[in-house]
Amino acid sequence: MKINIPESDQERIVIVGGGFAGLTLARELKKQDYQVVLIDKNNYHQFQPLFYQVAMAGLEPSSIVFPFRKAFQGEKNIFIRVTEVERVDTAKKQLHTPLGLCNYDYLVLAIGADTNFFGNEEIARKALPMKSVSEALSLRNRILTDFEIALSVTDYERRQQLIDIVIVGGGPTGVEVAGALAEMKRYVLPKDYPQLPTDEIDIHLVEGADRLLLGMSDEAAGKAQEFLEGLDVKVRLNTMVTGFDGEVATLSDGSQIPAHKLIWAAGVTGNKMPGLPQEALAKGNRLAVDRFNRVAGTERIFAIGDIAYMEEEDYPKGHPQVAQAAMQHAKNLGKNFKRLAKGTSMQPFAYRDLGSMATIGRNRAVADLPGFKFQGAFAWLIWLFVHLFQILGVKNKVFIFINWVWNYLTYDQSLRLIIRPKEGPIKAAKD
Ligand SMILES: Cc1cc2nc3c(=O)[nH]c(=O)nc-3n(C[C@H](O)[C@H](O)[C@H](O)COP(=O)(O)OP(=O)(O)OC[C@H]3O[C@@H](n4cnc5c(N)ncnc54)[C@H](O)[C@@H]3O)c2cc1C
What we know:
431 residues, alpha/beta, 2 domains, 11 helices, 32% helix, binds flavin-adenine dinucleotide
């Protein structure tokens, strides 16, 4: 059975994945002489850089997602199908999905990456990742639920276990989560939970390397650590988390941290797409592509964004897995499709690094922009505006802006709701 998509004389480009890469490409191809089919397992685009604010109850999930159908209302050459691509049949130029088969003339894989637990299954089962809006929401629920339970626990050790948090990975995500939690501990929790010893909440940030923010400058890393320690975050460098059973985290130096929550922000691995030849697979489970984003060993198959592994002279280990690289791949490929339609030759991709930033909390951020580096309140303002500018949809921008202003003025977020699937009442803790 085939997915029901109208037959057309136009060549069909199927884009799998509507993240930064896939969505940007589909927008580039609006009104072009191609039939474009955008397939995603969700019916919305997710703005991953702000997941942590959902997890920390600073933003509603609906502010950072955007429905695909709204993005392409009235676009006659764009067809959206919400389903998961299970595998590709390169010989028949077909995708297998639970909705049926989908033929392609060109296939673009923009399937992104997922959390990498480096093969540790126990950690994978028990840790809390943050790679989707639903995971961010369940993290919010877990944090708030544990505070509620801790209120009725009298045993000191058990209560500490419920309120302490371990964050693994000192990249931008780990740093941002640690900063947001530290601010919650300082400004919000004492008001919400006056009966809890909130000053005793320990927030641990564990990083395997000898510094934070590995992709950024030494100045940014040093300042981020200073900001975090100023907010009472316990930063542990040169240390790995080797185990977590849901109650205690074990570290590579043999020490242990009793904590009920371990947030895993320690790396990503490419999402799998069965059916591709062995030579297409590259480091980090990414897909090896040439400078035109063509997947090695295949015909008419491209990969863009986090899943694409492209070596350039200045990037011998591939491009960083960030939104900018994903959008730049997509824009170049979009232009190349337009060139193909006109019968002209494709242009190779060249990555332009626009810099990186991380925020640690109000008035505290670090920014490495081309030509200059700065930290503190100005970097924080730039961070706010860059993210506001990137978020999709005017309503989302307005809601986020209002939330941020409100949070800034009141030192409070008003979204601390535990909303979850029907699970029954919060159970009493083992005392
Ligand atoms: C918590 C967090 C914070 C981040 N912060 C920043 C930041 O501040 N700045 C920055 O530049 N980058 C940041 N990143 C990285 C950035 O989000 C990624 O580089 C970017 O999302 C990559 O875009 P993409 O389109 O390649 O993949 P994604 O955005 O991951 O999109 C992949 C899409 O493919 C879909 N999909 C996957 N498999 C299938 C399948 N089999 N069938 C159908 N659909 C499928 C998914 O549903 C998803 O919509 C962050 C990432 C995370 C997780």
